[in-house]
């Protein structure tokens, strides 16, 4: 019996093998992992090579299950930054977030975010998380007592059926909670909510730096994600 299917825009933890094995009905269709649509992915892997090109930087990633390119377009790099993300070198481990794309028959992740992994436990946690989500979607919740769509727990990236939004937000800072509430209460459809609206409406007395830091923290935790560009956000 299958488990709960995540919302299409959920940030899905996955291994590279799962990504390479993802199915696609046709070239314009969304990718499916475990028969669930995936658009936003997060992967933890080792950087095997860094290739700087005229328009992008390609990070060759290997997590022990396969090898895949992560492509960061230079137009997406913030002003004042170099092409290579700070602290990322060959043989280091990174967490990447982005959208699964295919070009010329070869799959890659179009990177929205890449950062170094500072604690090796994050590598182990990610593999466990990816396996947990896979088992949940293919076998249902532990114990088999619930019907599809009824799930007792939740993980760091996908909403579960057994915890309320308030429970999941309890360990966030007041500013982070305000940002999440604002986005949930002001849905922007497929475009998401603009960062300027978040800054005005979440906690107007906060500085732009405070807002930016809080948004970065929420993205790293998989609570929110970019939609049409780096200035629009939606909750998972």
Q: What kind of oligomer do you see? A: single chain
- Helix share bin: 25-40%
Order of secondary-structure elements: EHEEEEEEEHHHEHHEE
CATH architecture of the largest domain: Beta Barrel
What is the overall pLDDT average?
80
Q: What distance lies between the first and last C-alpha atoms, to the nearest angstrom?
A: 24 Å
CATH topology label of the largest domain: OB fold (Dihydrolipoamide Acetyltransferase, E2P)
Could you characterize the architecture of this molecule?
The chain is α+β, with helices and mostly antiparallel strands and 236 residues long. It folds into two domains: 11-122, Nucleic acid-binding proteins (OB fold (Dihydrolipoamide Acetyltransferase, E2P)); 164-236, Winged helix-like DNA-binding domain superfamily/Winged helix DNA-binding domain (Arc Repressor Mutant, subunit A, Orthogonal Bundle), CATH 1.10.10.10. It is built from six helices and eleven strands. The chain has helices at 16-21, 121-139, 165-169, 174-185, 195-201, 208-220; strands at residues 11-13, 31-33, 36-38, 40-52, 56-62, 67-73, 93-103, 106-116, 193-194, 224-226, 232-235. The protein has a five-stranded mixed beta barrel with strand order 4-5-6-8-7. The protein has a three-stranded antiparallel beta sheet with strand order 9-11-10. It has a two-stranded antiparallel ribbon with strand order 2-3. The model is unreliable at 79-83 and 146-163 (pLDDT under 50). It is found in: Nucleus. Keywords: DNA replication, DNA-binding, Nucleus. InterPro entries: NA-bd_OB-fold, RFA2-like, Rfa2/RPA32, RPA_C, WH-like_DNA-bd_sf, WH_DNA-bd_sf.
